[in-house]
Write a structure and sequence with these properties.
alpha+beta; Aminopeptidase; 6-stranded mixed beta sheet; 4-stranded antiparallel beta sheet; 10 helices; binds zinc ion
Length: 389
């Protein structure tokens, strides 16, 4: 494959993006301003969408005319931590070794943003008939917190109506039209401490937490048994599991508090609210039973962030027809991770995922992206420009 003329530009931009070590949850102003300056120098009008405390900014802009039917290219500017991982190079300094470019975010997902920015002059010069939009968010890695904000900002800011959103999460440049939804919940059990010998007249927060965890597992088994599944995913059914459980002071004290954090990953045809509702009913049942012995006993469940909706874009949809001709492999894929795609769909834009890099490279030590993947992404953007020109 001949080298794409913008490959070295995209690598240079990737190097600069990676040098901003912005983790999910942290202020992203440095990387937002870097992108803002880049857009400004290219002569593109852009908007920051600033959060309430002023320390985080999403960015969106339009390249091309104010016509209906444009395409949003969406990416997130934050990355996951590197602490405790065995990195062989500085994760925040792009390091090239042969065909691989190492650095935190190379795949997830600054490679995509670098390609978008590298192709900007070409988009600008192309005399597009329908526009391309950039949508770059923050705090994706801690629950897709700003996806809905930037999607709504685009919907409300422009007089015209963009049609499609392509989320450039790593799919190895395959076209993915479905993903599971995701929610994380913290459940806290409050009881009363006591001497362990008095457990018959008390209620152990830890033991009650165990019952709730087993309920989650039982619910998952019931879903599997009932045949609620979607074979496009692996595993093909919704899952729930407790990833954190903390509580207790000593073996001879009845524990008065226990926290569990659990997640729910849902296939598009399951209803997460129904599952949560059933869980909360079980919690109420346990409260009633335990309050007979410990009147102050209670169980509280708090969502860690708004539920990230599943994505299920029809293979017959316009966006799938539109993007199929732009990828090498027209076979549709699904992804196991949650992303902002479902949120863009909820805001009224048909959405798919397609981005450079392999999901197996995400969130691990020595994350890298292959130059070929950047190249394929640049080719994809070329075809997008052609389609909209
Ligand atoms: Zn990502």
């Amino acid at each position: 494959m001949p080298e794409h003329p913008l490959l070295s530009d995209s690598i240079h931009l990737l190097e600069q993006l990676i040098a901003h070590p912005i983790l999910g949850g942290q202020s992203n102003l440095s990387i937002a301003h870097f992108i803002g300056n880049f857009l400004e120098q290219a002569g593109i009008d852009f908007q920051y969408v600033t959060n309430e405390t002023g320390d985080k900014k999403a960015i969106h802009c339009r390249i091309g005319p104010a016509e209906d039917g444009g395409v949003i290219l969406s990416g997130h500017t934050d990355v996951v931590p590197t602490e405790g991982q065995d990195w062989h190079t500085d994760p925040f300094q792009l390091t090239a070794k042969g065909n691989r470019l190492y650095g935190r975010g190379a795949t997830d997902m600054k490679g995509f943003i670098a390609c978008c920015l590298a192709a900007l002059p070409k988009m600008k010069a192309a005399k597009l008939k329908k526009p391309i939009y950039f949508a770059f968010s923050y705090d994706e890695e801690i629950g897709c917190l700003s996806g809905p904000i930037v999607a709504r900002a685009i919907r409300d800011h422009y007089p015209e109506k963009p049609a499609f959103a392509i989320i450039g999460e790593p799919t190895s440049m395959r076209l993915a039209n479905a993903e599971k939804g995701m929610g994380v919940f913290e459940t806290t059990i409050y009881s009363r401490a006591g001497h362990s010998s008095q457990i018959r007249s008390g209620a152990s927060a830890i033991q009650e937490a165990a019952k709730l965890i087993l309920w989650l597992e039982g619910k998952m088994e019931a879903i599997v048994k009932a045949g609620q599944k979607d074979d496009r995913f692996s595993p093909p059914h919704s899952t729930m599991q407790a990833g954190i459980c903390r509580g207790g002071l000593a073996p001879n004290i009845i524990s008065d508090q226990c926290h569990i954090q659990w997640d729910l990953r849902i296939i598009p045809s399951d209803d997460w609210q129904l599952i949560l509702e059933e869980f909360l009913q079980f919690c109420q049942e346990r409260e009633r039973i335990c309050q007979a012995k410990v009147p102050e006993f209670r169980i509280e469940t708090i969502p860690q962030y708004p539920f990230v909706p599943a994505l299920d874009t029809s293979p017959a949809s316009e966006i799938v027809q539109f993007t199929k001709s732009m990828v090498i492999d027209p076979e549709l894929a699904t992804v196991a991770f949650a992303s902002e795609a479902g949120q863009f769909a909820e805001a009224g834009f048909e959405a798919v995922l397609c981005g450079p890099g392999h999901v197996s490279e995400c969130h691990i030590a020595n994350e890298f992206i292959e130059k070929e993947q950047l190249q394929e992404c640049l080719n994809f953007i070329d075809r997008l420009i052609e389609q909209l020109g």
